[in-house]
Write a structure and sequence with these properties.
six-stranded parallel beta sheet; alpha/beta; 19 strands; globular; 27% strand; single chain; Quinone Oxidoreductase, Chain A, domain 1; 2 domains
């Protein structure tokens, strides 16, 4: 084998951490598929806010995961590893897939557990497929697995115009929620969410309104059965106030801070509230396998692109070539992909990057900006890059 066959191009970080300008396309060892794994030639990968945190040295990958950025991708299987788990018969070289990984998606190839990929349907583009795994699995876990949503539940989704927020809103509607109340920072975002085919039924501007009061008005003082929260400190007391008896709250992030100076614990007791924090990347492989399988069975077939007719859709903001990965990170860091003015053709604010390869299997372009690929993006928490 030539040296080129043992290496691949990947997005790397000068000095292992730093600003977006530290990102560059360099050479890394090409992974091989181990027992229970497949090797995927990546067509597109997602851009998530955790990638920014990892690039800055604030969010290390799980033990054993690749140190290369990126957790969601789409591509084609090029190699099957030795397998003792009974999955080998399900996959063939050439199969088109999307998947979730602990790291390593910002590259030409990724080795991933066979349990962590889903067959890509023909109606999804590479970028649309890459925009699904992390965002929708996070929303599914928060709302369905932990939040235990039931038909006719009332649901409150914070950061409603984010990638996970948009996914959670649509999932809530598909699972039969009676009211889905979304909070955002502008009326324009509320109007957009209310206009989606399976969008929010009500909205609240958390900067100008008391969202707990809005919840009580909408639910006739019953409160919501499920809260999906990313905000933490500033929203905590109002979340407790907004929850109904036996309500469930899933906390996915702590964007406003980690410390609540004063809180009345009594409602947690007398309303029998269930409050659970959650992450996805650090979960065990067994947990992720079960989650992905349940998501595939219950939800995945219902998802289409923005122009499709599915009850759930993935909305993409912008596509970049992977040679412009620094620009994609800068845009997400500045929240430009979450501003209303950035919603072209009624898309949300996800960002994606795509990479185009030649028919002989080599990849066009190089780190000098000659790639003809594109990067595609949608909701604010995710994006994708094409090779």
């Amino acid at each position: 084998m030539s040296q080129q066959e043992f290496t691949m191009r990947a997005v790397l970080i000068k000095g292992d951490q730093g600003s977006a300008e530290h990102l560059y396309i360099g050479t890394a060892p090409r992974p091989t598929a181990r027992t229970g794994e497949v090797l995927v030639k990546i067509k597109a990968f997602g851009l998530n806010r955790m990638d920014i945190s990892q690039r800055e040295g604030k969010y290390p990958p799980p033990a054993g995961a690749s140190t290369i950025l990126g957790v969601e991708f789409s591509g084609t299987i090029t190699e099957l590893g030795p397998n003792t788990d009974g999955y080998r018969s399900s996959w063939r070289v050439g199969d088109e897939v999307l998947g979730l990984a602990g790291g390593g998606a910002y590259a030409e190839y990724i080795a991933v557990k066979q349990t962590h990929i889903i067959r890509k349907p023909s109606h999804l583009s590479w970028a649309e497929a890459a925009s699904i795994p992390e965002v929708f699995l996070t929303a599914f876990q928060a709302l369905v697995v932990i939040g235990q949503i039931k038909e006719n539940d009332n649901v409150l989704v914070h950061a409603g115009a984010s990638g996970v927020g948009v996914a959670a809103i649509q999932l809530a509607r598909v699972y039969g929620a009676h009211n889905v109340i979304a909070t955002t920072s502008t009326q324009e975002k509320i109007d957009w969410l209310l206009g989606l085919p399976n969008g929010a039924t009500h909205g609240a501007n958390y900067k100008t309104q008391d969202f707990a009061a809005v919840v009580k008005d909408v639910t006739q003082n019953k409160g919501v059965d499920v809260v999906i929260d990313f905000v933490g400190q500033s929203h905590f007391t109002k979340n407790i106030d907004a929850l109904a008896v036996d309500g469930r709250m899933t906390m996915l992030a702590l964007l406003s801070g980690t410390v609540v100076e004063s809180v009345n614990l009594a409602p947690i007791l007398y309303k029998r509230l269930h409050i659970e924090g959650s992450t996805l990347r650090s979960r065990s492989l067994a947990y992720q396998t079960e989650l992905i399988d349940r998501f595939r069975r219950e939800v995945f077939s219902k998802i289409t692109g923005e122009d499709g007719n599915g009850p759930i859709r993935t909305y993409i903001y912008k596509v970049y070539p992977w040679t412009e990965i620094s620009a994609a990170h800068i845009e997400m860091e500045a929240n430009k992909n979450s501003t209303t003015r950035s919603y072209p053709n009624n898309t949300t604010n996800t960002t994606s990057t795509t990479m185009s390869g030649q028919s002989n299997g080599s990849t066009k372009g190089s780190g000098n900006g000659t790639s003809n690929g594109g990067v595609k993006g949608g909701a604010s928490s995710t994006g994708a890059v094409f090779f």
